[in-house]
Amino acid sequence: MSTALRQAVSAPRAVMWTCFGIIVLGAWFYLAAISPQTAGDSLAGDLLRSLCLTDGDPWSRRSLTAAMVMWSSMILAMMLPTAAPMMSTYMDIAEAAHEKSMHAVSPVVLAAGYLTVWIMFSVAATFLQAWLQSRAMLTADEALARPGVAALVLIVAGAYQFAPLKHACLNKCAHPMPYFLGNWRDTVPGVFRIGLAQGGYCVACCWALMSVMFVTGLMNLFWMAVIGIVMIIEKTVAEPKPWSYGAGAILISTGAVIVARFGL
């Protein structure tokens, strides 16, 4: 075994973060390559779009597959970085267990459980997108075509930023140590279930912000990045409520302005 490989094997935390970084960057690259905002007429963009374009029928297998791939890429790009507190905490506990000659399951299993829940969210979002498209409720940019519906989504998403349920789930996501210690398992199925639980808390925390993508446009990379940054900040700062409340106020205000201008 080479020295570099031996060092990698002996540093699982570094390997894990490297893999996370590669996956997240790969997802962003894919989204940029298929986005008309950034891909332009590049050969790579043309190739990926030709593989991922719909065939005009939102309920066809090709259209659903293309939408599912897009949503899954969005999840990897936006939500995997927000899992950093969960993964870091788990690896802290796992390393302490190893030092005491106790068995600890690979954090990959935890991440798999977490992502399983978000992939299920992607499936639901894919069918919602198809339903909206079949009723001509989305524009060519994959944004809600009716200002009143867009305003309602913004207001609901903004109001949820103040909800006790949002902040109870946010606390579970940002500070998972109590949950891990109270539900610690040293088997693959057990750790996978912990990942499922953490994924459930994350979906309950972030679904409303993710729904804003239907207002900004599903392939709008700028707003995708902005929403992703807001969710990362919420899970990493010491006191997230000012950030959550500020984002909620902005969303509600924007929705109110749309209603005042266009009506319901």
Polypeptide structure, described:
The protein has helices at 3-9, 12-34, 43-52, 61-78, 84-99, 107-134, 147-160, 164-174, 177-182, 188-211, 213-216, 221-236, 241-262. It has one domain (74-262). The N and C termini lie far apart (66 Å). Helix 7 crosses helix 10 and helix 8 crosses helix 10. Mean pLDDT is 87; it is low at 5-10. It has 264 residues and is mainly α. The longest helix has 28 residues, at 107-134. The protein has 13 helices and no strands. The protein is 75% helix and 0% strand.
Describe the secondary-structure layout.
Elements: H1 3-9, H2 12-34, H3 43-52, H4 61-78, H5 84-99, H6 107-134, H7 147-160, H8 164-174, H9 177-182, H10 188-211, H11 213-216, H12 221-236, H13 241-262
Key descriptive features of the protein:
0% strand, mainly alpha, globular, 75% helix, 264 residues, 13 helices
The end-to-end distance, rounded to whole angstroms, is 66 Å
> How many helices does DSSP assign?
13
Instruction: Tell me the total number of β-strands.
Output: 0
Which radius of gyration do the C-alpha atoms yield? Answer: 20 Å
Described by strand count, sense and barrel closure, the largest sheet is: none
Counted up, domains total: 1
Strand residues, percent: under 5%
